[in-house]
Amino acid sequence: MQDKIDVLAAAGMNTRLAHSGNSPADYHGFVNPPVVRASTVLFPNAVTMETRNQKYTYGTRGTPTTDALCEAIDALEGSSGTVLVPSGLAAVTVPFLGVLSAGDHALIVDSVYFPTRHFCDTMLKRLGVAVDYYDPMAGAAIEALMKPNTRLVHMEAPGSNTFEMQDIGAIAAVAHRHGAVATMDNTWATPLYFRPLDHGVDISIHAATKYPSGHSDVLFGTVSANAALWPRLKEAAITLGVCGAP
Known about the structure:
single chain, 246 residues, alpha/beta, Aspartate Aminotransferase, domain 2, 7-stranded mixed β-sheet, 35% helix, globular
């Protein structure tokens, strides 16, 4: 597998898209991984079950099918880990709930996807999280809006409907100086045209319902994190019980 990863890293994007996540040698030569429809996973003995000392433990925690897709997305994003969720909106709400707590403050770009704004104005506020919206063209000037309890800065570029381009690197740098997590909805660009983690973003979000799935057949979302945020993202997805269907 490592040899394959090394070869793909030097390949062109079309080749990487065609081969990432596929390991025919693991499945008797079949090109694509099988679809694993699973909930319960058996353990060989009680000790293994108690320690969870095996790769797969329950359907919501991953299967060979989901791992194959996550591997491909990680290769495109340059991320340390990816979780799959049932919709683009879930791809926003899972990391938000994983990062924010009552008493925290979040800065959300004003051109954000409307369902994200609705989530912030309803559930987040009900949970005791203060939310302010900032001008998408603010760039480094967002520093004036940071508060001692700002824990998340959310970006989206291009912005939904209005298509402003944000200065992602500058905003992420400000967020980190103040100890906040930088998240970005990268749905419009996809990792083919922009890799948020390469520009300081901690968590990259996609409504995979759109370009990756063909826009009209599938509801799906992906969330990819850097090494620092991956444990928190994974724990949030598991705790919330949110996962993509087989």
